[in-house]
Every structure is written in structure tokens, then in C-alpha cells.
Amino acid sequence: MSKRLPSNFKRNRAATLIALSLGLTSTALCAQEAEEEQSKDELYEQIQITASKRSTGLQETPIAVSVTSGEAIEQTQVLDIQDMQALVPTLRVTPLQRSTNTNFSIRGFGNGTNNTGIEPSVGVFIDGVYRSRAAAQIGDLPRLQQVEVLSGPQSTLFGKNASAGVISIRTGAPSYTEEGKITLGIGNFNQRLLRGYYTNGITDELAFSISGGINKRDGYTDSVVDGVDELNNRDRWNVRGQALYEPTADVKLRLIADYSEIDERCCTVSDVINGPTTGVVRALGGTVLETDDPFAYESALNFNPNNQVEDGGVSLQLDVDFDTFSFTSITAYRNNKSNYIGDVDYTSLDILTEEGNTDIDTFTQEFRLTSTGDNTLDWMVGMFYFSEEVDTGDTLTYGQATRPYFDVLLNGGVAQAIAPLPFDAVFPVGFLGTFEPLYGQAPGTFFAAGQYVNSEFLQENDALSIFLNLDYHLSDDLTATLGVSYTEDEKDVSIEQINTEVLSSIDFVNDPTVFGVPLSVAAPALTPFIPTLQSVQFLPPQLIFPNSVENGNTNDDKVTWSARLAYEVNDNINVFATAATGFKASSWNLSRDTRPFAADQAALLAADLPRANQSYGTRYAGPEESTVYELGMKARFKRGAFNVTLFDQTIEGFQSSIFVGTGFVLANAGEQSTKGVEFDSTYDITDNLTFTFAGTILDPVYDSFEGANGLNGPTDLSGEMPSGIHERSFVAGLTYYLDFENGMTGYVRSDYLYESEAQLVENVPPELTREVRTLNASAGLEFENGVSVQVWVRNLTNDEYFMSAFPPPIQAGSFNAYPNQPRTFGATVSYLFD
């Protein structure tokens, strides 16, 4: 926390965190008229934002944007982006299978989960640098200045992959005045925090800063298996250095280098529906957790999962002021490496193990020319270049219990089918053992331990955006804005696979023979059981590409635009109307479930390319194209402020990625739309007590989505409500500021998050839903000598809900879910010196 400002100054700043409630509008207008003759500076503190890529006042910027200050983030003990949704109701952050898998959505729109090929629809920028994947976004936030969440398509100014919105994070630049701070913290689950920064000037023209942090915590999920540790621990650290060089009053260079590491056991999975395969696991001596208490925070994994992330990069921003315009250049290079190993059957049996690794190299370059001064026409022109190489792969390996599991599973199913005939009379060596010699395989070959499927993907992506933005001031109060951007995005993708899994390589459909003799002749009694054997061929050999039919290339281009009218009713009320479009290029399915398009089947057959048991689906999902219409108002008055935006937003070709147990089904939804309203407001009830209230009300629908992956396979979701989207989300906060005669100051704060009930995912039972009612609280004291203390608690009421759900591999009828984090609490002590 920076040195405390006078209490009135701080409360007025809180008042400008804005937004609105429709029911407050008429009351607020009356209050505004009473204060109309007071200047803006007397009514509120200006918060500067960069949503328009200019530094402008929050209330004067006609963009639907929510701003969270560094002070609010520190007060509420927000340690990374995942916790941000507790303060911004239009933002939803969903952590999934690993620390690297986090999905961001704004107004219900968003994708980019476990599948590395699915780039997010919500662009994340840290100090102007685009972060293309969640693994490069989740490090603990250091020396934070503020976070801006921009709703709706932002492709015109932010270019690549901002079709649903933008999260823009700004950290503090180095100071020429010496300042430092160190923070120590402890919490339950043996949490230990250490954070700090130091900044100072080296010369009158050169300043630097260095910051870093360590965040460690034991896991909160206990294992029921001996020798396996608890899950959901924290073990991460980061370091960040900056240099600020200002050789003249018109030239500024800011160099930033950062590095962070994560080494954790993630993530807790609960058994919420145990299907018929549960009995097989238990018959083999394995443990499947009961479903009566999915929030018991227990794990039945047979080994410690692990995921590691190394993320680092360097950026250089150059700003040069000329007489009538300014020039900005932001150059950045980043590298992100991650690897993981996990027990993906989620039982104590050694059935399936998955290992994976990803290496992402990203280079970005942005140039901007921006008009300066008082002009009738303000302009901005620029370009953004993006180049990235993604090298990712995974290996699924059979364990010691894989063959026994499938043999018992198949024996049981077949025994029921042929009862009362004695099973041993038909299959004396077991179901699998009966078929192996018929196909020339040694006993014990099918599902043998150590067989594996290794898939490796390489994606090279180059993109270029050129943009122009014009603000024409029709009068002192009325401004028309027109923006246009051209984006071209090209991807080249290849896949290689090694598949040693024997059973899935046998083609029962196109070559149902035994030693060249039809099975109906060689073993007629066994013919009826072939479909049963086919049902467990879940890892067929992959058709690699590029090949003579599939070139592994997509090349997309699109012109996006935005148009806006903004009218300043008076010093304290602004209204605006916006129409804008957004664009996100094709995303490739970099998972084991990538399959050729059905449209390519004839050409593939003609080239004799299909593999055994070849099936068809999608290699990639085509571009997303979004459109939004908005009508908004920003207002402030003596004791508060509020904003509101009505919107009608549509995405055509929404890239839907659904996990189906062994991979991802990737498809374009025909059209998904949402009508709604988002608002946030603040009101100083007294000089010491501030109330904030923000919310989002949505009416989402799949206007068309044929072939969606539903609970029972492909289905038509047209006219249905998309899963995972809350129709109502609200955040309410109450902060009481303390002032003591001895100069000591403090605060007591509480924040309540509510999200209405929503189905988790399309392909899980509808009773698996999420509803959030979470209360957070904190309190702090700051002394004149720079020492401050804080106590905090997150999820005070121990609210329980699922973040997402999925069908586990090879366990038909079972479903697992990710439970939220239980109550956590702690205390920190800080010392600020200057």
C-alpha cells in the first residue's frame, strides 16, 4: 500500500470507481443539478485510464470500462487475476485442470481453456504488452497501479483476439524519489507471503525499480491414498525489474524485464456423479470417492500430480513527443514453458497417466502516432505485429490396472448380455484374452501397461493489424469517433503422433477378418461381441498433417470498425452511443481429438490416407466475428458516481471447445448473442463510509448452434441458453475509513459477490450448476512511521460451488467437477520507507 493520502482525497477517489444502477438515475440527476456549479475537480478525483490508448479521465471516456485501483486490490488481498472477479461482476475467471488453464469471459463471452490452440477471446495486456495465453497471465500481480476491464469488442484499437473484451493491467513505473516497501504475510493452510519493491533515481534522467514476491501455501485437499500429498498448494515466485530513462522532456524509454515460476499440485477434482464403472474400480480394490459430500476436499489420486510454469519476458516502450503529435513504440519478447503430469482417471488405480509440455515464444511490436494538443480533429494511426511459435504435446500412458479394468468392465457387460450362459464357457481366458490370439496378438497385449499415445503439435502464427482512429469534435460537447482496423492472421500447424496402443489400431469396420478369414467364418460365436470391443477403441491412430489433402494452414483477414457519438450534457453527465465489430482468427484443435473435416473424406480416401477406425470432426474452428450496440451514461455527483451501459452483443462463429474425456471437440456456434445491462456505482454515505454496487444482467442465447456437443452427443442447442453464463452478477462493497488523532489511519471493508445459478457445461447433466454467494472482508491500520498491518478473509461464509465440470476418461456415466476454494484468511505486516 502506498503512503496514505488524506482521507477525503482517498474517499473521493473511491467515489470515481463509478457506475450505476438504473434505479438510481433520476435521483442522481437531481443530486447532480444541485451541484452543477461546482467544478469537476471539486467534485471528484480524476482517474486516468488508457482504454482509448490515450491517457484520459475515466468519466470523460465514452467506453464501457470498469476500473479497479491498486489500493482496492491490496485491501481485498487480490493476489492474481483469478481473484479479480470478486470486484468486477462483468468478468468471470475460471481456473481448471492446471495452474496454466484459466478461462476469462466478459459479459458471458470467452474461451481459451485447456486447449492450447484456442486463443482467448478476452485479450490480456500488461503494461501494453499482449499476453496470448493464460499461463503467461496468472503470476502474482506486482506493484499494481490499476486494472481496467473493457467490455465488448475492442479489435479496432487492440487488434488480435479482443472480440469479447480486454483486461488491461498497469503497474507502477520507476520513481526518481527513493521509495521501498516490504510485506510479510501468513495465513491458514500454512500460507507464507513475501513481497517487496524498491525504486530510486540513479541520475536526473535515469530511474529504476525492482520488485518481487514469494507465495507459498500447503494444499487444502487431503489425499485418501498413502504417500500422496495434498492438492491445491501454492508455490510460486516472481521478480521484475524496470528502468526509466528520460534524456529530454520529450523522450521517455521504459524497459521492463520479468520472470516467474510456478511449481504446484493442481487441481482438486470432486466426484459428483458415479456411473456404472465405479463398481469395476472398487472390485479391483481401487477407491472412488463418494458423491454425498463433493466439498469434502479429498483426493483419491494414486500419485502426486504436478504442473510447472516458467514465464519471462522483456519489453521496451519508447514515447517521443513532437510539436503536434506523439510517437509510441512497444517492443516485446516473451517465453512461456509449462509441463505437467496428472492422474487423469481420478481414482486410486493406476489406469491412465497424462504428461504434457508446452513451449511458447511470442514477439510483438506496436507503433502508434497520436495527435496532441487542442484540435477539432484528434487522430491516431498505428500497427500491431504478432509472431508466435507454439510447440506443445502430451502423452497418455496405460498403467498396471488398465487391462484388468477393461477386462472386468467388458466381462461384466458381456456376462449380463449372455446370461444365464456360463461366462467362463464362452470366454475362459477373459474377454480380452479371447480375442487377442484371433488377431495374432500375444496374451496380455490389449491395454498392456506402458502402451501410450504421444501427440506433438507445432503452430506458427503471424498476424498484422493496421488501425486508424478519428475523434471529430463537432462542438465543445459533441464528439464523433470513427475507428477502422484491418487484421490479417495466418497459422501453420502440424501434428506428429506415436501410438503404441494395439487394440485401437485394429480396424473392425473395414477389415473385420482373422488371419484373412472373415470373423463370421473363423469364429462365428464371437461376431456379436465385436461392437463391444469396438466401444473401447477410444485412442485410434491419428491422421497426421500436413498431408496431400490437408495443408495445415489458415489465413484469415477482416476489417473491423467502431463508431461512437459522445455528448457531454454538462460537467458531470456524459452519454454515448456505440456500434462496433470485433474479430478473432481461426483456432486450431491442438488435442488428441483433432480429426479431419468430413468434407475432406472423399479426397482422403482417394489418396489412401485414412487410418484404422478413421473418424471425422474438425481440425479447427473458423473465425469469430462480433458486433455490439451500446447506449451508455456516465455521471457523477458530490457524494458519488455511477455508470451504466445497455448493450446488444452478438458473436457469429463462436469457437466452442468442449472436453469430452479424452480430448476436445472444437466447433463454431452459428450465432450467440447477449442483451443486457452492466453498471457500477459508488456513494459516500458519510465522510467515512463508502458504499459501492456493481452488476451485470444478461439474457444470453444460442441463436443457432447445430451439431453442438451435448450430454448425449451431437445436438441442436439453437434457442437454448449457453452454459456457464450467469444471467445476474452483482458485487456490493462497504468500506469504513478510520482517522485517529495521532495520525494513524485505517479501514474496514467487506465485499459480497453474487452470481445466479447457471449450468456448468453443455455436456454434463443439467443438475450440475454453479451459484455464487461469497463474502470477503478485510481491515487494516497504517501508522505514521510507515508500518501497516492488515487482516483479511476470503470466502468468509465458506460458500460452496463448482467452477466447472467434465466427463472423466473411460468412465461412461460418471462426472467430475472442480470445487471452489474454501475459506482462507491471514494477516500481513508492511513497512513503507522513503
Structural notes for this entry:
The protein is mainly β and 834 residues long. It is 10% helix and 50% strand. It is built from 12 helices and 42 strands. The strands form 9 sheets. It has a 22-stranded antiparallel β-barrel. A 5-stranded mixed sheet has the order 3-8-9-6-7. A 3-stranded antiparallel sheet has the order 16-41-40, with no helix packed on it. A hairpin with a 2-residue loop joins β34 (708-710) and β35.
Summarize the structure.
The chain has 834 residues and is mostly beta strands. Helix content is 10%, strand content 50%.
Provide the fold topology:
Elements: H1 7-15, H2 25-34, H3 40-43, E1 48-49, E2 56-57, E3 65-69, H4 70-75, E4 91-95, E5 102-106, E6 122-126, E7 129-131, E8 144-151, H5 155-158, E9 165-171, E10 179-187, E11 191-201, E12 206-217, E13 222-223, E14 234-248, E15 251-264, E16 270-273, H6 278-283, E17 298-299, E18 306-321, E19 325-343, E20 352-371, E21 377-398, H7 402-418, H8 423-426, H9 431-435, E22 452-473, E23 478-499, E24 513-514, E25 517-518, H10 519-522, H11 530-534, E26 553-570, E27 573-584, E28 587-588, H12 601-606, E29 620-621, E30 624-637, E31 640-659, E32 664-684, E33 689-704, E34 708-710, E35 713-715, E36 728-739, E37 745-759, E38 769-782, E39 787-794, E40 802-806, E41 815-819, E42 824-833
